[in-house]
Every structure is written in structure tokens, then in C-alpha cells.
From TrEMBL:
<feature type="domain" description="Aconitase/3-isopropylmalate dehydratase large subunit alpha/beta/alpha">
    <location>
        <begin position="461"/>
        <end position="598"/>
    </location>
</feature>
<dbReference type="InterPro" id="IPR050067">
    <property type="entry name" value="IPM_dehydratase_rel_enz"/>
</dbReference>
<keyword id="KW-0411">Iron-sulfur</keyword>
<keyword id="KW-0479">Metal-binding</keyword>
<dbReference type="InterPro" id="IPR033941">
    <property type="entry name" value="IPMI_cat"/>
</dbReference>
<dbReference type="InterPro" id="IPR036008">
    <property type="entry name" value="Aconitase_4Fe-4S_dom"/>
</dbReference>
<dbReference type="GO" id="GO:0008652">
    <property type="term" value="P:amino acid biosynthetic process"/>
</dbReference>
<dbReference type="GO" id="GO:0046872">
    <property type="term" value="F:metal ion binding"/>
</dbReference>
<dbReference type="InterPro" id="IPR015931">
    <property type="entry name" value="Acnase/IPM_dHydase_lsu_aba_1/3"/>
</dbReference>
<protein>
    <recommendedName>
        <fullName>Aconitase/3-isopropylmalate dehydratase large subunit alpha/beta/alpha domain-containing protein</fullName>
    </recommendedName>
</protein>
<dbReference type="GO" id="GO:0051539">
    <property type="term" value="F:4 iron, 4 sulfur cluster binding"/>
</dbReference>
<dbReference type="GO" id="GO:0003861">
    <property type="term" value="F:3-isopropylmalate dehydratase activity"/>
</dbReference>
<dbReference type="InterPro" id="IPR006251">
    <property type="entry name" value="Homoacnase/IPMdehydase_lsu"/>
</dbReference>
<dbReference type="Pfam" id="PF00330">
    <property type="entry name" value="Aconitase"/>
</dbReference>
<dbReference type="GO" id="GO:0043436">
    <property type="term" value="P:oxoacid metabolic process"/>
</dbReference>
<keyword id="KW-0408">Iron</keyword>
<feature type="domain" description="Aconitase/3-isopropylmalate dehydratase large subunit alpha/beta/alpha">
    <location>
        <begin position="171"/>
        <end position="457"/>
    </location>
</feature>
Amino acid sequence: MTCGTRSSFSLVHWLEAPVLGISSLPLPPSLSSDTSAHPPLSLSLLILEISSARPFLFRHIIDTPTLPASPLPPPPTPLHSCKNCKRFSPIILYSLPPVLLMAATFVPAHTAFFGAKKEIGARSSFSPSISAHRCRKHALNKVLAVMAPTQPSRAPATTGSVKHGMTMTEKILAKSSDRSKLEPGENIWVNIDVLMTHDVCGPGTIGIFKKEFGKNAKVWDREKIVIIPDHYIFTSDERANRNVDIIRDFALEQNIKYFYDIKDLSNFKVNPDYKGVCHVALAQEGHCRPGEVLLGTDSHTCNAGAFGQFATGIGNTDAGFVMGTGKLLLKVPPTMRFVLDGEMPHYLLAKDLILQIIGEITVAGATYKSMEFVGSTVESLNMEERMTLCNMVVEAGGKNGVVPPDETTFKYLEGKTSLNYEPVYSDESAKFISEYRFDVSKLEPVVAKPHSPDNRALARECKDVKIDRVYIGSCTGGKTEDFMAAAKVFLASGKKVKVPTFLVPATQKVWMDLYSLPVPGSGGKTCSQIFEEAGCDTPASPSCGACLGGPRDTYARMNEPMVCVSTTNRNFPGRMGHKEGQIYLASPYTAAASALTGYVTDPREFL
């Protein structure tokens, strides 16, 4: 049996085989160079594999033996004599039935995708054209390489060799891994610039860190860890409050420089260190910088990609490892390119654009891929609108989203950070797995109907949907510009809302902006004044609020079946509370217009 054998055996079936065991995994340079400088560790690695036939997540936690303080033992005998597989000999497999092991031998190893360019206008729909080419290499090579990446030997360039460019994401990861060249699918040890965690995942991350590195271990860099309580804050729930206590104790113990604490829950304004929603606070406090790698224990960490950096969410196990080493094993994602051109209509916002995109490619369309946003429309967006674009790439399955940094980016960062940063941009010869083009001038306001962000519909097509409430807030739709947009609709209508309208600023700064910044064209009125005249609820304490449900006493939580138009990012059953609640995701324009009528409403009725 050779590695060149073809078979139709499904990779998905193979991935459903029992857990794989590993012996002798390679370590990050900082650990492997001098094992005597570190105590023995027990690592847990997350293995991700994507099926070529369809988006498919293969995730196993594999515990390795304690790392020896002496040189690693010699590699075991290779599984077979295939020359293509010998380089992975440090790995052995067990607990794999012989039948599956034999079947796996037939599995194609690599897949190259070719996505046709798409021209997209109003109301267009399509299924991305993807064709798969199956390689002849041994299937085990692919999986083994994911588990134990090796540095391939590179021969000197020969006459006539072609230098291929890299995408933004590839360049950032190359720089952070001290590599001159990277390609999608490679597994690399990345040096992390910023690690963020919050009150929901922080306690778990801290627990794993202490278990694996020792109760008295110190974090790798106290100035590169940001801890932000924001999710379950203004509640009497004891478990939620205990989580905040845990991250506070850890921050004090480790002398974490950037811990944005809140102690008095009765009045957030007396807590000068408290910020609010982590993703918006990271930007406002200068932790988002072009060309860097930012990881967070929250899926919407991709929000920071608006600054031209690699930002993605990770689990507690990975975060615990990063806390102790400052490194993480990452697989380089391929990049999808989204070109948005045309003048932005006055009735559209970035939320309409990202809902349009997700509706086109589906919630699985960008699975473990980078989404790069370019074009004249993107260049015209302010930083908060760019953050909205990148925030929801994870709703399409994306690994990360990026916007090329420009003068708008640099101006936003002035006064927010004193650290130097190095912007990077995609090469002209960079390879993209697919490209989608949108003529933004032809698009209309859209919503995502229950119960999925890709269940897209034109807002005007949902005019008969009666609603019970409107919610304006979250990391996606609770920024200053989002409230300015809502106030613009209320001001233009001169009417009062017909359903309860809840306002939850993302951060303290946003809250203060609502009471201090005049709304353009209002004659000096602030958002808070316009909201009061329209009959909205008083702006609440800044936090994640009801975006993710939370304890029963969370402000604006849906504790009974209701229909809600929301500027948040997810609408699966139970997301904002009651499992029978229905959530229509929309832009602040559409949310405000709907509040005025009591039905899902196209904002062009008022703008």
C-alpha cells in the first residue's frame, strides 16, 4: 500500500475515530532550548482539523506526558516505511482500530480550494463555487502535521523560482513567529503581544494556569495581559460576583498592570478603573495596534482586526498556556477577500454590510479562514464601523477579520498608545482562497431573522413582523457611533417609541459621550436628551447586558417569550434570555426605526 492510493473514504468519518495519543511533541523555543530552566510541565493542546469536503471542526484535548528535564528520548519507529511519512516519526498513534487505521491510509491529504470571484449587488444570492483537488500524499501526514508541526528543510532558491506574496494575516503571523514566509495550513509557534480575558472565562483560565505551571507561578508578562470584567457585572447572582472576585485576586497577586476593576456595583461611575465591554475597551485603551497578535478568551476578540492586527478568540486551555509562556501553536488560515466599493448610502451602516456578507456565504462559509475587508467603502468607514465589520466575522465561522490600517487608524490611535507598531499590508501577489465583490451603492437595509445570523432578509420585507422591544447595545452595536445613528432616526421622526427601547452603552466612555456630545443637526442636543424625548429607557450601566442573557436579574433580559429587534450579534434560541424569544439582528438605524413603529421597519421611512 502506498501513499499515492486514491479513495473516496470520507475524511469526516476518519476524524470521528477514537482519540489519538501523542508522544514527544515539539515545544516552543523558549521551553525546548533549556529544559532545566523550567519545572516539568503537563500540557494540553487543542487540535483543530478542517474537513476539505465541508466545514468540520475536529477538536480533541490531548494530554502529553510530563516533559522531561533531560534531553528528549529518541523517536519511536515510524508507523510504516513510506518516505513521505518518516518525518513525522516522533509521533505514535494508539487506540485506533486497525480497520480505521487502514481506511485512513486512503484519505486524501491536502485540498486546494478555488473560489470564483463574485459580483454582488442588491438582493443577489448564490452558493460560493468551490472545487476540491485531492492530493496523493498519505492522509496521516496531514493530521500528524497538525499535531506536531516540524520546520521543513528548505533548499536554496534556484534559478527561475517564483516568490509568492503573503496576505496581511500571513505577514502578521510570520513576523510573530520569526519566519520570513508562511503558507496557509502551516502550524507555527506564535509570540503573543496581548492576551485578554474577562469574568466569564478568566477564572477557568487562571485555574488551568495554576494547575499546569504551579500555584506560585508568575505570568509571562504582567504588562501584556489585560483583564476586563464586563459580562455578568450588575447582578446579585453570587456565582457571577464570585467570578469577579477570582480575577481581582489573581490580578493583585500577579500585579497585572491592566486590570479594569469594578468594586461598587451600585454606581459604576464611582469606579474610575471600570471600563465596560472588553472588545470596545481594548480599542479605547490603546491595546489594539496594527501588525500585532491579540488573543482573547471571547469569540468576538476578532473585533480588534479593524486595526490591522491578527485577533481571534481562544479557549481557556490555550489561554492558560499563553499566560505561562507568551506563545501558542496556531494553524495559518487561508484568506478570503471582500472588496466593498461604491458610495455608502445614507441609510446603511456597517451592520448592514456584515449581515449582507454573512447572508451570502452562510455561517459556515468562512470556517477557519481569515476575512480581509478592502475597497473604497471600507476606507470611508470610521474605526467604530470597521470594528462592527470585524466583530461578526466569527458569525461566518471566520478565524479572524482584518482591515488594512490607514490614516483613519493612525489618527484613532493618537494619544491612546505610546508603543511602536508596524503596519503590514497584503502583497499584490498574495494568494486569496476566494474573492467577493459588493457594489455597496445598490444594497438595502437588511436584518437577520431568527434563529441564525445568515437568515438574511430585507428590512422592508419584514414590515409585518410585530415586535415587543428594541435593544441597542453590545460590542457590535453599543458604541458611540451606534447611538449617534439611533438618535439621528429619533430626531428625524420627532415621534415617540411604541415599544420599550433599552439602551446599554458598551463602555463608560460611550456612556459619557451620550450625555456630552451633540448629535449633528440637532441644534446642540445630546443623545441622552433625544432618547428621553423619544421615550426610550434611560441609558443603563455599561456592560454586556442582555446580549448573552445572563442571570435572571440582568438589565433588559428577555425573561419570557418576546420578539426583539437588537443591534447585537447572535440570535440563536435563548441568546438573550428566554429560549422561545425571537431576535432580529439589525443596524442601529433599523432598530430605532422599528422602535418608532412597533414593527420591523426599513429606516428609509425616517431618513
